[in-house]
Predict the structure.
Amino acid sequence: MSTIRRREFLAAAGSLVIAFNLPLRNAIAADGTGTASLNAWIRIAPDGIATILATHPEIGQGVKTALPMILAEELDIPWERVRVEQAPINADVFGRQMAGGSMSVRLSWMPLRQAGAKARAMLLQAAARRWQVNEAECHTDAGTVVHTATNRRLDYGKLASAAAMLAEPEKVTLKKTSDFKLLGRRISGVDNEAIVTGQPLFGIDQTLPGLRFASYTRAPATGGKVAEANLDHVRKLPGVHDAFILRGTGGARALREGVAIVADSTWTALKAKRELRIEWDLTDTYPADWDALRDTAISKAATQGGETLHSTGDVAAAFSAAEKTISATYVYPFVPHAALEPQNCTAWVRDNGAEIWAPTQIPAAGAALAASSCELDPAKVVIHQTRIGGGFGRRLANDYVVEAVAISQKAGVPVKLQWTREDDFAHDFYRPGGVHGFEAAIDSNGRLTGWRDHFVTFTNDGKSADRWAAMGDGILPQYLIDNYHVDQSLLRIGLPTGAWRAPASNALGFVSNGFLHEVSTAAGRDHLEFLLDLMGEPRDLPGQHGPGMNTGRARAVIESVGKRAGWGKSMPDNRALGLAFYFSHGGCFAEVADVEVSDDKTIIVHTLHVVGDVGPIVNRSMAEHQCVGAATDGLSTMLGLQIDFRNSAVLESNFHQYPMLRMPNAPVVDVHFIESDNPPSGLGEPALPPVAPAICNAIFTATGERIRELPISKLGYKV
């Protein structure tokens, strides 16, 4: 992990610094510019321009803009007078800096509001002292302190140095949400201009004096080792400086064994990679085929048994007393992340330490892993945040960071490691596939009274379930019915799995909502009315990690999306509405898909209506974009995306075998938020799980064909 002593950080920050909310208090350093740092996040220059540090990795979700907006709101400064810089990685100063689990805003909401409010209070106190008046006689307005009685004004820039000398207040009063001037507006991303003009923001853009360029070739399956390689031939190729074997030092998330090529350009390194011939020792790999595993999982899911995960009530009695019972098996495949920016990292190892530039969602963990894998002094490993060209959970694993550091260490020069798209497909941490054997009991009133699910999932060791596919607490419809039972069986695979956008929820939303629609259909009930009845009276349900779902908030988004979509209206032949709801990452989302299906199974998603309750909206533009992105991602994945593997080696190699949704086929996405004073919850991920079931439920209503397996291209559907 990168470590900078607090005093070093404060000195490096320049000018006047107070370390906000740190054990080291009132530490001051001056650079003679008159710029003052009121806390670790804020610097204010004499011209009144405030520079706010963005602490979390920017992965396209907009946190580099949104988090500074939160602080600027409480600071009470116009956005036009704010500049944003990426913060260094320093857990002592900024806490955990990561992008994952839709947690950035959730975790930063109160700390950043407190930081902005304390800085504003210090500016108020500095002005009151200068005017020799009581602080209560002053207020702030758009980057100035105003003496209310006389309308005297002082710009923040004139007060910052004096304010930085004051002790931070212990308690401050935060703004009421009704008084927000900035939050909730549509604000363009602070990097937008740099992106469209090609400025070097991303990991792939990094350069250094004397930089060499590297490729790395791994075994086709995890655990493979290099038996032989034509290194002498590769070393003689034009522009190649070296080629060597790196022995593995751990599992999939550490250094995987392979062959590195170091050259004078990326193009040269990749051309040399084509000339590389390796004989692999696959003794320690575990051979697994998706088709065989799928068939085995389906057979196993159809029987009762396995490890009991959740069990409440008397499920057997509910089924015995049922008016009707139904059963179904649902299947979903493994999928890769396929981020636009392939994995890359620039590293320079020297003096038993390293400097790293990497597009990683969890930088400190990447630095720590590189230090342990390459036996470096953790205190001498510094990692820099770069903008990330898509991650979706893939860049929570830092295997490519370790590779770059190991190559630089061996070569003795700074290197930029660049993966190919084929590398990215072959060596991902895939969304785990799964199979669910469902049974439901329905009483004479058409209500769901009992639920069974035999979940078959896949794991590397065959002994412990993958956390990214876990059936945790609160999975729909748990806690909404009295009699609920889930069993789990494991099948071994030989490829690594990991977080994929809306981990676990992305698939569990599909299967639970699909089968719930089967229940309401079997009961002869309208699906919207059925879901509202299932939610019952407003109440808080238990949660797995933090607060659980509030059924009142769930009902509100279901009712709202129904109204926006015109639920119950007459539809043309072969066209229908489909509804789904899911709660994840603290957010409630209900979605209705308006879907037309032609005779040749071409589908048109005319509109996807999305209604969410995620608490207050920080940046409306980026919030809407997150939902549109989730909708597009969800449709693309359900339509035709999967990977197949033989002997644990992935067969798909590039986008010609993995057909992402094209822009002409993207639906119109109607986004609406129900805002409240509840704390902010996740946004970019919880909007995804209802997409696939809403569309599949619409297809059933339009055609009568029930979809129980993804992708739907398996059944001949296309766009």
